[in-house]
Amino acid sequence: xxxxEKGYSILFGRSPKRVALYATALLAFLAALKxxxxxxxxxxxxxxxxxxxLILLSADxxxxxxxxxxxxxxxxxxxxxxxxxxxxxxxxxxxxxxxVITAVVLQSLKCRSFWYIAPLVAVSAIYYAVGELYLFAISxxxxxxLQLTRFVINQIVRGLDAMCMFxxxxxxxxxxxxxxxxxxxxxxxxxxVPLHVFTIGGRHVVVVSDFHxxxxxxxxxxxxxxxxxxxxxxxxxxxxxxxxxxSHERDPVDGESLRRxxxxxKSALAYGRNGAPPRGIYPQSHIVGDVKVVGxxxxxxPYLAVVSRVNSASDDIPTWVSRLVxxxxxxxxxxxxxxxxxxxxxxxxxxxxxxxxKALQEAxxxxxxxxxxxxxxxHHLDVLGYEIGPAGISAIVGECDGARSLLVVFDGNNLHxxxxxKIVDTFESRGYKLVEVVTTDTHRATGIGIGKGYRIVGERIxxxxxxxxxxxxxxxxxxxxxxxxVDYKRVEVEAYVLxxxxxxxxxxxxxxxxxxxxxxxxxVFALPILLISLLA
Length: 536
Known about the structure:
The protein is built from 16 helices and 14 strands. The chain has helices at 2-6, 16-35, 41-59, 66-86, 95-109, 117-129, 133-156, 162-171, 179-185, 224-234, 255-270, 319-322, 347-360, 417-428, 463-479, 499-535, and strands at residues 189-200, 204-209, 215-216, 219-220, 238-243, 284-288, 291-296, 303-309, 330-334, 369-376, 393-400, 403-410, 434-439, 486-497.
């Protein structure tokens, strides 16, 4: 599952506006240098960029607006000027390389169209006009090369236009928008997925979502936690998100699916009731084999069965695992709180989970149950939200017949083990019967961390500062502790998700890119550079 996230970490970790700004400044500098040996160089590069801009805008103004077009045109022209200067060639000698970049981007924006040929045709005309007949022939041949490359790659990954997706990844450098959703949308399948909405004391909302908050930042469900946070808090509530069942097969594939989820939660809150006096179960923790299950209450059934791991990594609870176990009066919560270890769900792990859930069913009901919720922003700790997102840090304190439990929730994707242990030790030493720490599994910043594809909570932020923020959230929760009414609603949302088959195809594509990604890059980008440097 993690290979799915880290496979594209470099491309998704860039700011397109910043890239375009730097590219413009560098292009002006390189053009000025080139003008020392070829006075018309700035004019020629401006004309080339203008042609690229015109082609992009002509393809589809609705999809390829001036902002997007400028991003692509300036990068393409910069690459041409760089190689012209590097190899000491005449201006626009490497125009084919810039045209190929534009062609790749056009493939992502207009996957079913042949508009990607247009920049290659334009460059062919340029080469013909200046008498570079070898380069004229190469640019025409490259039209067939790109089409053949696309055909071969798509044959390797059947059922998925892998070249179109590859082009979309390239385009993501230029624009943080929904273009990549087009590649995912084709894989989507319509599915009804549950969400559980708890309203505590009429003030705080906890949403347990069986939609997975992925796949990437700015793509579909990658912004699920962020958008729910805005919507719920915009209605005057405080908000906490918990991830339930499902991995990337439950990723919402586009913005429309995301809007359906948000509207369903808003409707549930708009027509909510005052709720009932809080009910709870005695907090329990059971370790069976490599599985840890913690039973907690939000003041109304169903209760929470927080699932983590002992030796393996604590990652998603796949839908196939949930189908094999009986949860009874509980709903499964993905703790996502241990990054180290193997990502695996073996037969014995499923059996251990089943035994742990069975043990939770024996938990006694509380005679008196109280609940309190506290929440603080982590913006001062992580301005960009790479480790802790806008939903911040929540602390949910439960008190069952005098025994207190604490659930700490970070708006992040997995957790540093040392930080986890510090939190548990700190609050258990203060008399808490049970302490558990989870993350929302948000994918808002997937693509930021080089290697694993994201930063886990506590990776770079000082642990002492995080503990101070938790102390504040817990203090708020303790002061608000009381017998607050709790309203519960289960809603089902019909939305397009990747599905197990779509997830498999994406994984196949990731494996394919690992095997032949260098070959694709060589054919699409390196080969024309080599040919031009030899023949021009």
